[in-house]
Amino acid sequence: MGEMFTKAKNIETAFQQIRVICILSMIASFVFSGYVSYQCGKRIAESQNRVYILASGKAMEALASDRRDNVPVEARDHIRMFHFDFFTLDPDERVISSNIGRALYLADGSVKQLYDNLKETGYYASVISGNISQQITIDSISLNTQSYPFYFRCYSTQKIIRATSIVTRDLMTEGYLRNVSRSDNNPHGFLIERFNTIENKDLKIENR
After folding, report:
1. pLDDT single digits (tens) 165-180
2. Burial track 90-116 (b if 16+ CB lie within 10 A, e otherwise)
3. Residue 129 domain boundaries
């Protein structure tokens, strides 16, 4: 009887050990599965935050961030792009049409109205016939992101290059930015509204 009791006890102990091992194995499996799931989710999130920029035919990797972190940077670049496209002119109808076309995607009807007025007064025709080039340099951009839409004021310098002279002008403009969908034509996802020229006066005239 004693031997049988000892064998039964050993069998029971072996079952208990097997049960403990099974439980520990299950716990280890759950922990490992959770760790793998966490790491996969982390890698997916990291990959979604990676952006590839094509520059000079090479793909360069950059990290994306929340738009809120970049609003001032993107807004100023949007304003800078618009002014460059709208106010950079050369005596070539295609160049003018291309530049103005890009600028009109970045602004609302207030800019279209300004363009139509300049066109009707023969401004662009005089640029072509007079072999005039117009260049712009952005000096600074003041931006208020505390209230929406965002008010801005842009301070810049214009150079109007003619065959016999170079005119340097002070240009100050203002407007508001509202959010729109991003696109190839509007990569920053802003639209300039209520655009207005505050000041545009001659600073100096140089003979060539």
Report:
1. 999 999 999 999 999 9
2. bbeeeebeebbebbbebbbeebeeebe
3. 66-207
